[in-house]
Amino acid sequence: MPAPTTPFAPRFVPVPLTKEDLEWADLPIVDFSNAGTPQGRAALTPQVCHAMRTSGFMYIINHGLSQAQNDRIFDIADVPFTRVSEEEMQRYTSDIKGGSYRGFKPRQFWEIENGVRDQI
């Protein structure tokens, strides 16, 4: 049963675009405009599988969500990173070295190269 009210989530404000000349990842673009039909879903299946197997990400277009719905998704997705206390994050930190990826991953857990630590 849907909730009678929408739970509060603070407005997510993305960081400004960089002015640096970077080599961006070339993400696959998948068009969902025909996802409402069995034939459309059948055609999408290999595209989505390929995107997830080769890059692990995809950019979906024509998904049918409004800008307000997209904004709300980003608002909600930001909550675990900005609204959870340090104490709670520590309590639910994953045991990555033990093989478990469930829970929070501490920032700067992985070394990328030359001593540079991750920021995710």
Explain what you see:
The protein is 32% helix and 9% strand. It has three helices and four strands, in the order βαβααββ. The strands form two sheets. The protein has a two-stranded parallel ribbon with strand order 1-2. A two-stranded antiparallel ribbon has the order 3-4. The longest helix is centred in the middle third of the chain and has 17 residues. The mean pLDDT is 90.
What is this entry, summarized?
By secondary structure, the chain is of the alpha+beta class. Helix content is 32%, strand content 9%.
What are the SSEs and their pairings?
Blueprint: E1 29-31, H1 38-54, E2 59-61, H2 67-82, H3 86-91, E3 111-113, E4 116-117
Parallel strand pairs: 1-2
Antiparallel strand pairs: 3-4
Summary tags:
single chain, 120 residues, alpha+beta, two-stranded parallel sheet, two-stranded antiparallel sheet, 3 helices, 32% helix, extended
| Mean pLDDT figure | 90
Beta-strand share of residues: 5-15%
Number of alpha- plus pi-helical segments: 3
Strand order, sheet with most strands? 1-2
Radius of gyration: 19 Å
Question: Percentage of helical residues?
Answer: 25-40%
List how many beta strands DSSP finds: 4
Structural class estimated from helices and strands: alpha+beta
Morphology:
extended
The main β sheet shows up as: 2 strands, parallel
Low-confidence stretches: none
H/E topology pattern: EHEHHEE
